[in-house]
Amino acid sequence: MTTTEWITDIALVLVVFRQLREDRLDHKTFLIPLGIVAFVAYSYLDSVPTGGNDLVLIAALMAVGAALGVAGGVYTRIRTLGGHLMIKAGAVSAILWVLGMGARMGFQLWVEHGGGADDVARFSIAHHITGDQAWVTAFVLMAVTEVVTRVGAIYLRSRARTVSPAAPVLDRTA
Which pTM does this prediction carry? Predict the structure, then answer.
């Protein structure tokens, strides 16, 4: 992994750790994670491979990212305090975020330094995945999808909270 990849991955993990303490929900809550994944997408996505079963791999990992993102957004507490919306990532939200990030980092380390390249090559051949760019695209889009769906879930929940402050909001923090 390059220094930029380490910095980007650590920055994304720190975004949620920052939310483990309650803070005001504001534009930074949305712009920082979206900015990081926009940078990642710009840096790593040249094209989307469509040969063989590349799109199946990409769709499967994007579905995992979406599930992690929505769950992470649902398990983030949003409450009103002094006329402001406050946000706090619960333990479940943080665990899901680190799980998604850790899986991507672990896979990359395993392939690059743990002897997994041959196993991935055999799997790719057996399942008609055309090359390493399909894997890169799938994991990058998984991360982008996880961030966008998490931020989207938080945004929608915050809008519902501001529209009807008396309505109960499900608090799924652990």
Answer: 0.83
